[in-house]
């Protein structure tokens, strides 16, 4: 995917598909679950004509527990 599309892939209702195909919510939902529910990170790297790679990083359970306890 090219750079303008890569920058927008996590925006609500954004899709590079034909009109009427898809709602543009799939990557947004994934982003919200990973970043808000699991305190993780999702990154996208793409080279046009070669491919796209999504990298998901999640904290270890023990680290997540420490973060949750810190909110009390």
UniProtKB/TrEMBL annotation:
Top-level lineage group: Bacteria
Catalyzed chemical reaction(s): ATP + protein L-histidine = ADP + protein N-phospho-L-histidine
Its Enzyme Commission number?
2.7.13.3
Span of domain Histidine kinase? 1-62
Q: Broadest EC class?
A: transferase
Q: Which Gene3D superfamilies match?
A: Histidine kinase-like ATPase, C-terminal domain
- What is this protein's record name? histidine kinase
Q: Which organism is it from?
A: Vecturithrix granuli
